[in-house]
Amino acid sequence: MTSDLLKLPFVVTEAAGPKVAGRSARVGETLHLTEFEARTELLAGVIRPAPADPEAPQTSGNSDTGTTTGEAEPRPARRR
Fold first, then answer.
1. Which of 6, 13, 38, 58 is most buried as measured by Cβ atoms within 10 A of its Cβ?
2. Is the pLDDT of residue 64 over 70?
3. Are 17 and 46 in contact (CB under 8 A)?
4. Domain coordinates of the chain in residue numbers?
């Protein structure tokens, strides 16, 4: 039934007990869970999202503009 749901990788933290999301787990282990399975465990702090790709180069937030100055673009004025 859950095979058609997207499963995302999560890493088990030191705060975890012997079971995470109903499965046996060890600290540092990567579990693939659905958003529903991970929700309570994330709130409890026993898992955290796994890094996207450890070998991918790190990019800055301005990669689409080609600037690397680190300056933030001005925000539009707020309406009242």
1. 38
2. no
3. yes
4. 2-49
Percent of the chain with pLDDT over 90: 56
From residue 65, alpha-carbon distances to 56, 71, 73 in Å are: 20, 12, 11
The verdict on pTM exceeding 0.85 is no
Q: Which residues of 34-62 are buried (b: 16+ CB within 10 A; e: fewer)?
A: eeebbeebeeeebbeeeeeeeeeeeeeee
Q: Which residue has the tokens 């958003």?
A: 35
Amino acid 11: pLDDT: 96
